[in-house]
Amino acid sequence: MRRIAVAVLALALVGCGADAGDPQPAASGSASGGAAPRTLTLWHYESADGAMGKAWAEAVKKFEATHPGVTVKFEQQSFEQLQKTASLALNSDSAPDVMEFNKGNATTGLLSKQGLLTDMSAEVTKRGWDKKLPGGLQTTSMYDERGVMGSGKWYGVTNYGEFVMAYYNKALFDKHGVQVPTTYDELVKALDAFVAKGVTPIANSGQEYPAQQIFYSLALSKADKAWVDAYQSYKGTVDFHGPQFTHAATTYADWVKKGYVAKNSAGLVAEDMGVAFMGGKFPIMISGSWWYGRVQSTVKDFEWGIFPFPGNTLHPGSGGNLWVVPEKARNKDLAYDFIDITMSPEIQNIMGNSGGLPVAAEASAITDAKSKELIETFGKVSSGLAFYPDWPAPGYYDVLVGGVQKLINGKAEPAAVLDELAKPYQENLESLGN
């Protein structure tokens, strides 16, 4: 399996010329003339005011304009819902034609192994999507017969990139005289300064993904790429009581004791975290670039910025979530046409100017200052993207949520939590014959 290595700026911004992969009106298989009306069923879980939500809404309009007689039926899903029910939904007659799904061995890899996803390899080559997804962006789109990412057949296609970073409220930093940290020691100093002023510094969500991304960022502060390859790609042995995870577990528990993270955050969902930060209630939110467009369009009352997790050379991140086509989709030809539109410069430019990280935008078309800040920050970390902690094993997302919740609410000691994380990981390795 290849290590992820995403090109700086992000994701191969293309020149200003016409794009050979643009969809053509009334593409093969689309309704036109006297053909019977058809419906493309689309599922995704992006918010309407986020970068991807805005871009894909325009893609729907462009699709319907270029496909007379075809209607798009969009159904809003939730990340959590699809994590739990995707296998059941895709194995039924109600499967959509195209949907957004989480990437990695535990999700897209699992569904591909179960025979629930369409092999899109021929379409990828035909439409040139592989040319728009260089290097590491292909890693999470391809899966072998074991459901392990990085090689094999194309079961998904991404059209954006993502990574985890720190968002910060400049007004609260200035009010309390706190400097933006660039090293881990400076981060601790900043967190101590806020606590001394009676301020809980980090917005958090223990009931969903954000808490485990902080946990993984702490582990990565003691890791190298060989450790990431061992953990994510099974190319080596992972010691859950080694320095990486031991540091993450003990430090997280310590952060709660010191008041850096609120104990009640164990029961909060990601939306609670984001709304609290955007409402000016916390100085820092450590989460993904998928929040960027929403923060950009929502926050009007204070200045804000971003910085990479201080001191780290490795960061949670990858190509974005995937467009997948269920094996039971009724309109695969239309699904491919829709994916093609989301890869077009027009839609990619909208994403890039709305706080997203497009894979095929025109560099000259990205004019928004905040969007440029995001792309520049991504350029600083793109050579050290280390995927996400829940990817190695099916069901591991819930294992991590439960384990990190116990670090927050104090229901288990760090060593016991690490034992809890190690067991299903090792069981998955054994099931793969490792």
From TrEMBL:
Signal peptide: 1-20
Pfam families: SBP_bac_8 (PF13416)
TM helices/strands, residue ranges: none
SUPFAM superfamilies: Periplasmic binding protein-like II
Keyword Ribosomal protein in record: no
Name of the protein described by the UniProt record: Raffinose/stachyose/melibiose transport system substrate-binding protein
This protein's UniProt keywords: Signal, Transport
